[in-house]
Structure to design on (330 residues):
């Protein structure tokens, strides 16, 4: 029988780590304030020092709470403030995955300071969440069985199908452009010129010239992750991987990108759909960007945002199922 032996750091240990992070995060925010660096960019333009001051406030608050955990232990009264600070840092890490995708596609981010802030905020969210749970079970005893690979319930698999199908129009649109076609009034050559103007790397442009859109390939990778969370091969490598056959997948390997993707894409897509609904209803206007008309831009936005929203929600459902199905069993 496979056995697990897993220890969680005690309240003082993880609390110290959270305290060090909080002091560093507040210092980072203060450095941005003193240097006049904006941490929020909309359309490539900074929005002032308000976000940097918010980082200072969140970091100092988290430092005080973490110091209390280090001094007094993880008391129930500290859990709500810790989780509240965790939620705030999660909000500050919003769109981190979009920056990662942008960098993987070979393009530059709007602001490196903003990206660093998101990375630090994501790390803080993990540390604060771990601190809030550090008074729970501290060890999984030897002899606890690793659960056998299992399939997610039918409802979760249906969510995975929805997330997969939602990407088909997006992938078809991007591949059509990459192969030289015209969609929404823009030709493939014009889209390639836009990518080059935005600083796309040579690899990105080469793939585009071959008719392979890198973002469509990333969508395919995301679908692979989604199905790995709901099928047994996501917990142990199946027969079609002869060099890794039978080896178990470390639990955190699929969960880490799944949680990052869910925390970014689900709110990004849901909020985006609300905004596009207002634009469609005529309540607000939207710039046409590189498209001939606002209607063309709106069509492309609906295709992209719908894919992110449905996939993001499916990722939340699948990650929760994977988490429950891979818990150590007595």
């Amino acid at each position: 029988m496979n056995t697990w032996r897993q220890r969680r750091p005690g309240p003082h240990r993880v609390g110290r780590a959270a305290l060090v992070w909080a002091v560093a995060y507040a210092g980072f925010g203060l450095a941005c304030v003193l240097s006049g660096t904006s941490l929020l960019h909309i359309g490539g333009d900074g929005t002032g020092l308000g976000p940097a001051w918010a980082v200072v406030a969140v970091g100092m608050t988290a430092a005080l709470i973490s110091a209390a955990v280090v001094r007094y232990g993880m008391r129930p009264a500290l859990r709500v403030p810790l989780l509240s600070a965790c939620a705030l840092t999660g909000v500050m890490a919003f769109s981190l995955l979009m920056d990662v995708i942008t960098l993987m596609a070979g393009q530059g981010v709007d602001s490196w300071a903003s990206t660093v802030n998101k990375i630090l905020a994501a790390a803080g969210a993990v540390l604060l969440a771990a601190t809030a749970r550090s008074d729970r079970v501290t060890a999984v005893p030897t002899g606890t069985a690793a659960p056998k690979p299992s399939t997610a319930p039918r409802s979760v698999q249906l969510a995975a199908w929805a997330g997969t199908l939602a990407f088909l129009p997006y992938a078809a649109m991007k591949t059509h452009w990459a192969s030289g076609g015209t969609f929404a009034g823009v030709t493939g050559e014009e889209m390639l010129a836009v990518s080059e103007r935005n600083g796309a790397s040579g690899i990105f442009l080469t793939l585009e010239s071959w008719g392979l859109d890198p973002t469509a390939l990333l969508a395919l990778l995301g679908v692979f992750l989604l199905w790995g969370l709901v099928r047994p091969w996501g917990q142990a490598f199946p027969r079609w991987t002869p060099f890794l056959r039978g080896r178990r997948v470390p639990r955190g390997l699929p969960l880490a990108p799944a949680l990052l993707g869910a925390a970014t894409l689900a709110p990004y897509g849901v909020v985006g759909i609300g905004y596009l609904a207002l634009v469609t209803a005529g309540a607000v206007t939207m710039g046409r960007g590189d498209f001939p008309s606002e209607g063309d831009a709106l069509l492309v936005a609906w295709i992209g945002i719908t894919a992110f929203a449905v996939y993001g929600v499916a990722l939340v459902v699948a990650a929760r199922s994977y988490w429950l199905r891979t818990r150590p069993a007595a």
